Amino acid sequence: MLTETPSKFQIIKGIPIPAARASHSGLTKGLTDILRKMQVGDCIKAAEYSAKASSTFNGVLTAYKRRHGGKFTTRKVDGHLWIWRTE
Question: Which pTM was predicted?
């Protein structure tokens, strides 16, 4: 005999799905093209530093490295996020 336990979840009908967020909020638009052009030792001043910007750019760099190779590192310098190509 199964005992029914109350669920903390409830089905709600008729609520529309909100619009999707813009990819990376436009922060990284065009970054892939720049990364392709960078040579070892080159750097770019990517954005004003914030934890969200750092996380976003590191995610894009990781995806780029998986697809195209190369190595990059990021640093916070004078309140901005910088990206260097290291390999």
Answer: 0.69
